[in-house]
Amino acid sequence: MLALGGSLTPAHADKVTRTAECQGDWLPGTPTAEDVMKGEISLVGLPPYKLGRKIDWGASPYKNRSWEYVFQSLRWMGTLVVAYENSGEEAYLDRATEIAKDWVAHNKRGARGTKSYVWKDHPVSLRTQPLLCLSRHVNESWLKDSLAEHAKLLADPRLYKKGHNHGMDQDIALMGIGCRYGRKDWSNLASSRLTGTVKLDVDSQGALMEQAPRYAVYVYGRLQVAITNMKACGRKVPSEIGKRAEALKDFIAHSTMPNGYMVPIGDGSAETEPKMETGTPKHEVKTYRAGYVFGRTAWGKPESAYYSIRFGPGLKFHGHEDHLGVTYYAQGRDILVDAGFHSYEKSSYRYWTLSPEAHNVPTVVGARFRPRTASKLVATRYGDDRQSFKLTDKAYGVSRTRSVLVNHGDDLMAVRDTASGGKKIRNLWRFDHSLKLISKGGGKVVLGDGKFKVTLLQFGASCDRVGGQQVQRGGKLGWVSPTYLSKQPTNVVVSPAAKSLLTVIVPGTDSPKVSCSGKKLTVDGISIPTTAF
C-alpha cells in the first residue's frame, strides 16, 4: 500500500471547522442528508431506494448504469459530512463514518463479490471527494489506506482518460489526495496531465470536443474546481487552463437556445439549463471548427429564431451520427429537433438514438452508411437577416451535399440535398412532439399545436413540387426523448427518394404563398435559389 503522511484535523463537539474539501458545489441535489439518515436515497432522478441500515453494496434496483455509478461514488454519503460541518451534529458524522467504513470493508479492489464497475475510472474519481471530506474529521488507517488505493489507480497511466471530462475528474481527485497528504509527485502529475487533457477537450475557440454541448457546462464547472484547488494547494494555475475555461463560456452561450435550455445535440437532453453567467457574445452567429454552427436572430429575446448545424470530426465520446443535421427554433417554439438523449443503457433504443435515422439528415438511397465519417463545412455566407452554409461528406461512399439557408425577420429555413453519381437521396424531418399532423399532400405537410402552425414544402431542382411524403408517429422513426429515460411519439416526415430535394420550413403559417420563376423560388415574399445557396 502507498504511504500517506501528514496530520488530520480532529472533530470538536463544540465547534466544527468548515473545510475546503467539504464545502463547495460538488454535491448532487438529491438525496438530502435527512434522506440518507432515514435510509432512503434517490439517484439520477429514479425513485427512492430503501438503503436500510445494513447496505447491500451490490444493489442495482433499476439495472441502470448511471444509478450504479452514482451509488458507488458515495457522494450521497458526503452529504452527511457536509451536514455535520454545518450543524455540528455528531450523528451525521457517525453515520457517514459507518457507511464509508462498511464500503471499504466490502469493496476491496479485485476481491470476489466486488462489482467491476466499482473501480472504474469515474466512480473512483468522484468517490475521492467525499472520502477526502470525511478524512478532515476522521483519522483512521482504513480511510487513509483507501485513499492511497484510489491514488494508485488515479496515477496509473493505463487507466487515464486523456482528452475527456473523466480525465479531468481523475486529475482533480489525484491532486486532492496529493495536496491533502503532501504528496507532490501526485500533485505534479495531476497538474501536468490536466493541461494536456484540457487542450484536447476544449479547443482554442472554446468548443468542447466531446460532441455534446451540455457537457461543456460540466467541464466548465470542473475546471473551476481544479483552478480553485490548485490555488488552495499553493500551485500556479497553467495559463492555458484559465484561457480555455473562459472561452468555454462563449460556447455555452452560443449553444443555449433562446428559451434558456441548451440545444440537445449528442448526449444532451432538452432539459439542460446552464444556470451560469456566460455574458453576451459579440456575434449572433458562430461557426466552430469542432463541428458546429449556432445562429440566432438576437440575444436576450425568447422569441428569437435559433438554429444549429452539425459537421466536423467523426463520432466519438458523447456524439451521435448527426452530421449535416439541423435543429430549428422559431417564434418561441421548438420546430425541428433531434431524437435526443435517453440514457447510457445498452439498449436497442439507446443505439437507435445515435443513428442517422434519429436526426434531421439526408440519406443516400441504396448505399451503406459508414459510421464515424468526418464532414466538412465548405462554404459560408453571413448576413444580418440571412445566413447560408454548404456541407459535404462521404458517409455513404459517395458525396452527399447539404446547403442550408436561414432567413430571419420573416422566419424560414431552406435546405437543399443532393448526392453525387446520380444517386437519389431521402431526408428525415423530426418535429417537436407538441406539433400534431394537420394535413399532407402535394408536397406540403402542415403540423400545429393550437393556433401555432408550421408548414413543410418540398421541391425538385426546377421548382417542381415533390409529393409522396410519409409521416410516422411512433413506429420505427417517430420517437423523441426530451428528458432522461423518457420516450415520446412524435411526427417525423420522410421524404420520397429524389436526385435533388429542396425542403422549406415555414413557421407560423399553414398557407404560405409560393411562386417560382426561373431558378428562384419565392415563399411569402422570400426569394430562395433552387439550385444553390
Please tell me about this protein's structure.
GO terms for molecular function: lyase activity. Keywords: Lyase, Periplasm, Signal. It is found in: Periplasm. InterPro entries: Chondroitin_lyas, Hepar_II_III_C, Hepar_II_III_N. Helix content is 29%, strand content 23%. It has 533 residues and is an alpha+beta fold. The N terminus is likely disordered. It has an eight-stranded antiparallel β-sheet, with no helix packed on it. Strands 3-4-5-6-7 form a five-stranded antiparallel β-sheet, with no helix packed on it. A four-stranded antiparallel β-sheet has the order 8-13-20-17, with no helix packed on it. The longest helix has 19 residues. It folds into three domains: 143 residues, Chondroitin AC/alginate lyase (Glycosyltransferase, Alpha/alpha barrel); 124 residues; 210 residues, Distorted Sandwich (Beta-galactosidase, Chain A, domain 5), CATH 2.70.98. It has eleven helices and 24 strands. Helix 3 runs parallel beside helix 5, helix 7 packs antiparallel against helix 8 and helix 9 packs antiparallel against helix 10. It is elongated.
Main sheet makeup: 8 strands, antiparallel
Task: Give the strand line-up of the largest sheet.
Answer: 9-10-11-12-21-16-15-14
What do we call the CATH topology of the largest domain?
A: Beta-galactosidase, Chain A, domain 5
Number of separate structural domains: 3
As residue ranges, the low-confidence spans are: 1-13
GO molecular function: lyase activity
Main location: periplasm
Subcellular location: Periplasm
Domain Heparinase II/III-like C-terminal: 314-492
